[in-house]
Amino acid sequence: MSDAQVSAIDHQVRSSEWETVQRVVFPDGRDSSLWPLYVDWGNAPSSAALSALTTGRNEVPLQAAPREIHQPPRAFSRRSLTVPAGERLSLASYFNAFPAAYWQHWTDVRTVRLDIETKGVGTVALMRSSARGTFTTIESETGDGTFAFDVPLDRFGDGGWLWAEIDATVGEVELVSASWRVPRVDRDRRTKLTVGITTFNMPGECIKQANRFLSEPEVLERVAEIIIADQGTRNVVDTAGYEQVQEGLGSRLRVIRQPNLGGSGGFSRGMFEMLRNPESDYVLLLDDDAEVEPEGVLRAISFADRALRPTIVGGHMLNLNERTILHSMGEKVNPYKFWWESVDEELSEIDLAQRTIRTDPSLNRRVDVNYNGWWMCLIPKVVVEKIGLSLPFFIKWDDAEYGLRAMEHGFPTVSLPGAAVWHVPWTEKDDGLDWQAYFHQRNRWVAALLHSPYPRGGTFPKTSLATDTKHLLSLQYYPERLRLMGLEDVLQGPRHLHPSLLERAAKGRALAADFDDAQLIKDSADFPQVKRRKPLRQGKSPSKPDNVVKFGLKAFTGALRQLRATDDLSQDHPQAVVTNAGARWWRLSNLDSALVSNAAGSGAWFYHRNPQLFRKYSTRSAALHAKLVGNWERLAHEYRDALVEVTSPEAWEAAFHSGRDASDRTLNR
Fold first, then answer.
1. What's the confidence (pLDDT) of residue 54?
2. b/e per residue 594-610 (b: at least 16 CB within 10 A)
3. Residue 99 belongs to what H/E stretch?
4. Residue range 229-256, pLDDT digits in tens
5. Cα–Cα–Cα angle for 505, 508, 509, rounded to 5 degrees
6. For residue range 569-623, what is the model confidence (pLDDT) as tens digits?
7. Do residues 414 and 455 touch, judged by C-beta distance below 8 A?
8. Among residues 416, 430, 486, which one has the least CA distance to residue 22?
9. How far is 350 from 344, CA to CA, in rounded Å?
10. How far apart (Å, rounded) are the C-alpha atoms in residues 314 and 413?
């Protein structure tokens, strides 16, 4: 460390106090599968790497060989654990390493301190990684008691983390506590947040979510209110456990009954109530069925407090069923295709039990995003005041559109490592094939009209038409009918958005009765028997086209086949059983009928090829896409001109009070 860096740190230490922005925490001990998210235990550096640390050759390649671990750590509480004698514990983990690159790039913090307390003689080392995938020992001390390490944030431009390692060289060492701290900034008061949870008939999950805040006093101190927008028929207030959690939270908990306005309506209610609460500075949007790591809430608000400009701070999504798998390190909307995707494909579906900061260089890069999913997302009050509430989308694309809108107003979004929830993965949902298909299509088009930087949307209209064609080649007529309804509504202009909140989901569900491919057969005893007049020859199952020419040829021949008359036998008997993973257009377009498994594994659909519907829907799709492209500029102006009014608190307040009698009432006020 240079003399200038030492002087700068000394000045900050003398002139200010320190505040905690990230505590080292551990799982509650009931689920051992979570340990890799909190400690890096099974991938300790090799003996050669450890030798380099003590001989001055500080920079070590990240591809360190694993060594045998004789004893696991023992956790005594959320803040402490014991490192057995002879073992080395690294906190180079998702939840306990400090994301230095994010703090350097997005905040005004230029110095960070690690405060750590141990019992038992051991060596505590402060480590730093680079964006290239190397790590370095910055400083180490041997002994027990309290240690403080100060680090300037000036070498993490493109990436890198900070973390501690504890070597129990003499006997076992207890880590009593550890915290990452930054120089305190004087404020009139500590900032607080409104937690906005929206629910539809998942009251038990809401009780669990509220209890997570109740069980963490330090987190609860930063909560002004917890708003549950209850939009279902199974009321939260009538659920077992509600009275206890309400008694514990007191006036901090409010359950608001309102019509079913979807996710965007529930989250907008949280935004709306935050604007009316003078004690609240942020709204934290949180899915009812997401399991939040409460420590991440503190990290998000601490990060937002020190951001260089008002910043949306999002949490990552971990897989609820495979709990060490991270969905993505960051999401973006591809502006040309206007579709959401991972910022870096290498950093999607990451198993953090196998890939760690010390063994995978890609995890050390800073990942910048243009939106964050609303499974967990902290939004400053000033952002909502400036750009409004969510669009009345009901569900789908509300979070992506809001991030793009905020970015256009100069408010960035950061997906912050170490702030996260566990959530059911998309791979176990068929939301593109059920009633939500309407919202996938309609909302994507509206968002593109508002934010696409390209004339007539770039390649987006082509990809939209191609998706329609894929559904038709896959014998999926129900979702295609909904997608056509979405295109028709886009052409109506922005006036249809708020009225559609109470109508379109119900209409979409009702349409399911008219389509065979929307009827899920749940009991395998009811599955129809497979029969076909000419069985497929071995090895003749269609495969994915591997180049553009084959792709086009297969699509053309598949489309021609849809116009042929169907085999009468296929009406009562599927010609094949197709797995969910194998249900692709190049496979299904060759069949007159098929029994297709759903993503959740709870049943199957009986698809039938229908030449009449194929002809009708493909013609209608082509006509609607041509009309939308031809009217792109006019529609874009209409939607952009109406945006402020449509997303205003006044427009949303009217929506909250619409629908069934007395549906909007506030409890525990």
1. 34
2. bbbbbbeeebbbbbbbb
3. none
4. 999 999 999 999 999 999 999 999 999 9
5. 90
6. 888 898 999 998 888 888 898 899 999 999 888 899 999 999 999 999 999 999 9
7. no
8. 416
9. 11
10. 7
Taking CA atoms, 80 is separated from 23, 149, 150, 208, 294, in Å, by 11, 19, 22, 25, 17
Amino acid at the residue 36:
P
CA distance 244 to 247: 5
Residues 454 and 633 sit within 8 Å (Cβ to Cβ): no
DSSP-assigned letter for residue 371: B
Measure the CA–CA gap between 117 and 175, rounded to whole angstroms: 6
The number of residues making up the chain comes to 669
CA 667 to chain centre: 30
Maximum Cα interatomic distance, the chain, rounded to a whole number of Å = 86
pLDDT-derived band of residue 73, with 50, 70 and 90 as boundaries? low
Residue-range domains of the chain with CATH: 3-183 (3.90.550.60), 193-330+369-428 (3.90.550.60), 437-627 (no CATH)
Whether the per-residue pLDDT at 15 is higher than 60: the answer is no
- As given in the structure block, the two tokens for residue 161 are 């983390």
Instruction: Quote the pLDDT of residue 561.
Output: 84
How many whole angstroms separate alpha carbon 619 and alpha carbon 612? 11
3-class SS of residue 577: strand
Are 332 and 341 a contacting pair, CB within 8 Å?
A: yes
186 given a catalytic annotation: no
Q: Which residues pair with 365 in a beta bridge?
A: 159
Burial of 663 (0-12, 13-18, 19+ CB in 10 A): middle
pLDDT tens, residue by residue, 292-339: 999 999 999 999 999 999 999 999 999 999 999 999 999 999 999 999
Rounded Cα distance between 400 and 402, Å, is: 5
Predicted pLDDT of residue 429: 77
Within a 10 A sphere around the Cβ of 466, how many other Cβ atoms?
12
The Cα–Cα gap between 37 and 417 comes to: 11
Residue with tokens 């609820």: 320
Helices (H), 491-631: 497-500, 504-511, 548-562, 585-588, 611-630
Tokens of 379: 């939004």
342 has pLDDT over 50: yes
| Each residue's pLDDT tens digit, 531-578 | 877 766 554 557 677 666 777 788 888 888 888 888 888 888 989 999
The answer to whether the CB of 408 falls within 8 A of the CB of 284 is no
Q: Dihedral sign for Cα 281, 287, 293, 294, please.
A: positive
178 close to 114: Cβ distance less than 8 angstroms? yes
Q: Which two tokens stand for residue 211?
A: 């209890």
Determine the Cα–Cα distance for residues 460 and 462; give it in Å rounded to an integer.
5
Query: Is residue 225 within 8 Å of 254, Cβ to Cβ?
Result: yes
Residue owning tokens 């079913």: 260
HSE value, Cβ hemisphere, 13 Å, CA-based, for 202: 16
**Of residues 360, 399, 517, 592, which has the active-site annotation?**
399
Q: What is the pLDDT of residue 460?
A: 95
DSSP codes, 285-331? EEETT-EE-HHHHHHHHHHHHTBSS--EEEEEEEESSSTTEEEES-E
Match 């886009």 to its residue by tokens: 490
For the entire predicted model, the pTM comes to: 0.90
State the average pLDDT over residues 10-31: 74
